TrEMBL record, chain A:
It comes from the Bacteria. It is a multi-pass membrane protein. The keyword ATP-binding does not apply. This is Multicomponent Na+:H+ antiporter subunit F. Keywords: Cell membrane, Membrane, Transmembrane, Transmembrane helix. It is found in: Cell membrane. The chain crosses the membrane at residues 6-26, 38-56, 62-81. Its main location: membrane. Pfam families: MrpF_PhaF.
From TrEMBL, chain B:
Keywords: Membrane, Transmembrane, Transmembrane helix. InterPro entries: PhaG_MnhG_YufB. It holds the Pfam family PhaG_MnhG_YufB. It comes from Nocardioides salarius. Belongs to the CPA3 antiporters (TC 2.A.63) subunit G family. The keyword Mitochondrion does not apply. The chain crosses the membrane at residues 6-30, 42-60, 72-93. This is Multicomponent Na+:H+ antiporter subunit G.
Length: 86, 126
C-alpha cells in the first residue's frame, strides 16, 4: 500500500516544516536545540519511508546508525547550552 | 485478499500512525511555552513515532517476503536503540535546557531539579 506510505511521508514532512518554524521562532537557544533534534528524527523517518517505497538495501543499517548516533548531536547541543559545563 | 496484502496494509497503517506521532510532537512544541516542556514534547516522536515507522518498514518487507534475518535483527536493534538512547539523550538535553532558561512556565507542576539547580527568575514559596 504505497498510498499509505506516501501519506506518512507527507505527514512527516509537514511535521518537519513545523519544526523549522519552531527553530525560526525560538525564543531561546534550548528550544532551537530541541527543534533541531526533532528535525533529525524527522529526517530519519523520511529516509526509512522513502527506503520502503524504493526498497533501498541499506535501510536498516541507516535506521540503526541514526538511532544509535543520534545521542551524539543531542549531547553536543546539551553541552553547548551549558557553555561547556556538565 | 492474500496474507501479503493484509501485511502491507498493516505496515502502511503502522507507518502512518508513527508519522502522526511526529506531527503531534511538532504541534506540541509550537504550543508549549518553555524549553523544558519542549524537551518533554520530544518523547512521542522518539519513543513512539520512530519505532512504529521502523516496525512498519520491517512488517512491509516481511509481508513482501524479502526480510532477511540480519535485517530483522537490525530493525529490532534500531527500535531498542531509539527507545533507550533517546531517553538518555532527552535527560541530558532536559537538564541543559533547564539550566539555560531563566524562568519556568507557571503551569509547571512539580520541580525535582529545584533543590540542585537555582534559576534566577523562579519564585520560591518559602
Amino acid at each position: 500500500m504505497s498510498v499509505l506510505v506516501v501519506a506518512a511521508i507527507v505527514v512527516v514532512v509537514v511535521a518537519s516544516a513545523l519544526g523549522t518554524v519552531q527553530v525560526l521562532r525560538g525564543p531561546d537557544d534550548a528550544s532551537r536545540a530541541v527543534a533541531g533534534d526533532l528535525l533529525f528524527f524527522c529526517a530519519t523517518a523520511v529516509f526509512v519511508l522513502v527506503g520502503v517505497l524504493g526498497s533501498i538495501p541499506v535501510l536498516y543499517d541507516v535506521a540503526l546508525l541514526a538511532a544509535l548516533c543520534g545521542i551524539l548531536a543531542t549531547a553536543a547541543f546539551a553541552r553547548m547550552l551549558t557553555r561547556g559545563e556538565r | 485478499m492474500s496474507a501479503g496484502d493484509v501485511g502491507s496494509v498493516v505496515a502502511g497503517l503502522l507507518m502512518l500512525l508513527g508519522s502522526l506521532f511526529f506531527l503531534v510532537t511538532a504541534l506540541g512544541m509550537l504550543r508549549s511555552r518553555d524549553a523544558i516542556s519542549r524537551v518533554n514534547n520530544l518523547s512521542p516522536a522518539t519513543g513512539a513515532g520512530l519505532p512504529l515507522v521502523i516496525i512498519g518498514a520491517a512488517v512491509h518487507d516481511l509481508s513482501a517476503g524479502d526480510l532477511t534475518v540480519l535485517d530483522g535483527v537490525k530493525a529490532a536493534l534500531a527500535v531498542g536503540a531509539a527507545l533507550v538512547v533517546s531517553s538518555v539523550a532527552s535527560n541530558l538535553l532536559g537538564r541543559a535546557a533547564y539550566r539555560s532558561q531563566t524562568e519556568l512556565d507557571p503551569r509547571t507542576v512539580g520541580n525535582a531539579l529545584e533543590p540542585f539547580e537555582e534559576l534566577d527568575g523562579v519564585e520560591h514559596d518559602d
